[in-house]
Description:
The protein is an alpha/beta fold and about 300 residues long. It folds into 2 domains: about 5-90, Orthogonal Bundle (Arc Repressor Mutant, subunit A), CATH 1.10.10.10; about 95-295, D-Maltodextrin-Binding Protein, domain 2 (3-Layer(aba) Sandwich), CATH 3.40.190. The chain is built from 11 helices and 10 strands. It has helices spanning about 10-20, 25-30, 35-50, 65-90, 105-120, 135-140, 175-180, 195-200, 220-225, 235-245, 275-295, and strands spanning about 55, 60-65, 95-100, 125-130, 145-150, 155-170, 185-190, 210-215, 230-235, 255-265. Strands 4-3-5-10-6-9-7-8 form an 8-stranded mixed beta sheet, sandwiched between helices. The chain has a two-stranded antiparallel ribbon with strand order 1-2. Keywords: DNA-binding, Transcription, Transcription regulation. It comes from Rhizobium gallicum bv. gallicum R602sp.
Amino acid sequence: xxxxxxxxxxxxxxxxxxxxxxxxxxxxxxxxxxxxxxxxxxxxxxxxxxxxxxxxxxxxxxxxxxxxxxxxxxxxxxxxxxxxxxxxxxxxxxxxxxxxxxxxxxxxxxxxxxxxxxxxxxxxxxxxxxxxxxxxxxxxxxxxxxxxxxxxxxxxxxxxxxxxxxxxxxxxxxxxxxxxxxxxxxxxxxxxxxxxxxxxxxxxxxxxxxxxxxxxxxxxxxxxxxxxxxxxxxxxxxxxxxxxxxxxxxxxxxxxxxxxxxxxxxxxxxxxxxxxxxxxxxxxxxxxxxxxxxxx
Length: 296
């Protein structure tokens, strides 16, 4: 077959998508076409090649032996084109790295340290966004994410564990006596409304508060503790810098809650020089924090 005899790329794309997803309807959704348009493109491809590529299978379709061969070839070809274009774009035009981080961790741990990365790698552009829980990297246009790993993770993700989540009560030094006597307000976060109850289950002898107040986020809870509004049950990563400089106290220390913070990106992503540098820097910073935390 001469190159001039190769069928339309649109028809090949429609067939490859049907073959990969196993459904004309699913292929239509991915390609943003109508069911009929996809069917017509696949039918035209079969006619042009004079080959039967699909056959009815109940309410769906399945590949013929010729269809399986073509599906394998088109799948590899389109993957190669996609990867090559991504590599060309990443090497010719610097693309900002979109780093998504949980809001409180971003404000209390990441942002205070991020200038160190910018000073070291001034040519790597990092855009910071905030979010929590699961995410869709393509839909959310995120390159790299830092998450507390308390949700079901995708097997197609690469996960680098950064540091364990450890929590404990923190307060102004002037409030310690009131904490020990039980004359205090327990500050919590609405993102973890049952955190104090879980902590008391593990610390049966700890003094109970006179009341509990929930704020929207952990960083607000930490600021409230700094403002003397009560005792915050804070993640160590959120409060450790203030404990280290003496602004807050953690008289009972911090305990692991069984979860970890992780650095996540799709396994399929092309790891650019900038992304590799950011990933290594974040890992190193978390190790530095862990060494400091061990002294708190």
